């Protein structure tokens, strides 16, 4: 469920299907996601998955790709 939601949300935020085709795409270095987009992603995660994340909690390096974001959230929900 987390995987599908994140891929769907990132596809909408970035405006490209590249996210679903290549979940290892570099979001920031390719310009697909910027600082405004990451805040929108935090809000979407809170609203849709009920997982609250502070912007200071993660770095761009930790969330560089869709797969890294998914892995982080899956680990977080196991706690």
Radius of gyration equals: 11 Å
- What is the end-to-end distance? 17 Å
Number of helices: 4
Which stretches are poorly predicted, pLDDT < 50 over at least 5 residues? none
CATH superfamily membership:
ACP-like
Main β sheet profile:
none
Question: What percentage of residues falls in helices of 4 or more residues?
Answer: 55-70%
Q: What is the β-strand count?
A: 0
CATH class: Mainly Alpha
Mean pLDDT: 94
CATH architecture: Orthogonal Bundle
Global shape = globular
Backbone structural class? mainly alpha
Q: Write the CATH fold name.
A: Non-ribosomal Peptide Synthetase Peptidyl Carrier Protein, Chain A
Strand content: under 5%
Task: Give the ordered list of helices and strands.
Answer: HHHH
Q: Quaternary arrangement of the chains shown?
A: single chain
Quickly count the domains.
1
Provide the descriptors you would attach to this structure in a database record:
single chain; 79 residues; mainly alpha; Non-ribosomal Peptide Synthetase Peptidyl Carrier Protein, Chain A; 0% strand
Set out the fold topology:
Layout: H1 2-14, H2 18-21, H3 35-49, H4 66-78
Helix pairs in contact: 1-3, 1-4
Question: What does this entry look like structurally?
Answer:
It is a single chain. Helix 1 runs antiparallel to helix 3 and helix 1 packs antiparallel against helix 4. The chain is 57% helix and 0% strand. 16% of the residues are buried. The chain is mostly helical and 79 residues long. The longest helix is centred in the middle third of the chain and has 15 residues. It has one domain: Orthogonal Bundle (Non-ribosomal Peptide Synthetase Peptidyl Carrier Protein, Chain A), CATH 1.10.1200. The chain contains four helices and no strands. The model has no long low-confidence stretch (mean pLDDT 94).
